[in-house]
């Protein structure tokens, strides 16, 4: 049984790391953003696995994913590698021909095939993976802010 409750998670503020138990933690940033991380040991090395931000990922959802990861590790699998493979397959499924833009919105440089992402039903492109990741982080931030506004 975890130590955190949904009400407590909503009320937490200020930068800190709050343990729920069983390798699950809630990280609260200086700006108040909240994200779930799981601290595990895989093949003798410590790792932190990002599970997503609260409230997009609920307390129950984070606990469930943490349990799946612990089971995978116990079975000798590496959930980080599995997550990377799934992300790569998802990325590979995006087709350059479906990209809605031809230049990066930040740099104006041509879009690269390895820097595509999805935004709703659209495929959007960037000049490099760093720009793509910056966009993905911004979208997650705004989605979390919108979700928080709906839960207030």
C-alpha Rg, in Å?
18 Å
Name the quaternary structure: single chain
What is the helix tally? 4
State the CATH superfamily name of the largest domain. Answer: Integrase, DNA-binding domain
Reading the helices and strands in chain order gives HEEEEHHEEH
**Within the CATH hierarchy, at the fold level, what is the topology of the largest domain?**
Double Stranded RNA Binding Domain
Summary, kept brief:
This protein has 152 residues and is of the alpha+beta class. It has helices at 6-11, 59-74, 79-92, 129-151; strands at residues 16-21, 24-28, 34-42, 45-54, 116-119, 122-125.
Describe the protein:
- Helix content is 39%, strand content 25%.
- The chain has helices at 6-11, 59-74, 79-92, 129-151; strands at 16-21, 24-28, 34-42, 45-54, 116-119, 122-125.
- The mean pLDDT is 86.
- It is of the alpha+beta class.
- The protein has 2 domains: 1-84, Double Stranded RNA Binding Domain; 94-152, no CATH class.
- The strands form 2 sheets. It has a 4-stranded antiparallel beta sheet. It has a two-stranded antiparallel ribbon with strand order 5-6.
- It contains 4 helices and 6 strands; from the N terminus they run H-E-E-E-E-H-H-E-E-H.
- A hairpin with a 2-residue loop joins strand 1 (16-21) and strand 2.
SSE topology sketch:
Layout: H1 6-11, E1 16-21, E2 24-28, E3 34-42, E4 45-54, H2 59-74, H3 79-92, E5 116-119, E6 122-125, H4 129-151
Antiparallel strand pairs: 1-2, 2-3, 3-4, 5-6
């Amino acid at each position: 049984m975890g130590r955190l409750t949904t009400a407590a998670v909503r009320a937490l503020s200020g930068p800190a790391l709050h343990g729920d138990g069983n390798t699950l933690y809630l990280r609260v940033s200086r700006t108040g953003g909240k994200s779930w991380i799981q601290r595990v040991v895989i093949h003798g090395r410590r790792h932190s696995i990002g599970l997503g931000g609260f409230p997009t990922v609920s307390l129950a959802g984070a606990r469930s994913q943490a349990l799946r990861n612990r089971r995978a590790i116990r079975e000798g699998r590496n959930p980080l590698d599995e997550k990377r493979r799934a992300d790569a397959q998802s990325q590979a499924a995006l087709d350059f021909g479906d990209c809605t833009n031809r230049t990066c919105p930040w740099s104006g440089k041509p879009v690269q095939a390895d820097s595509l992402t999805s935004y709703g039903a659209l495929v959007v492109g960037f000049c490099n993976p760093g720009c793509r990741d910056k966009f993905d982080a911004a979208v997650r931030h705004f989605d979390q802010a919108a979700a928080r506004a709906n839960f207030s």
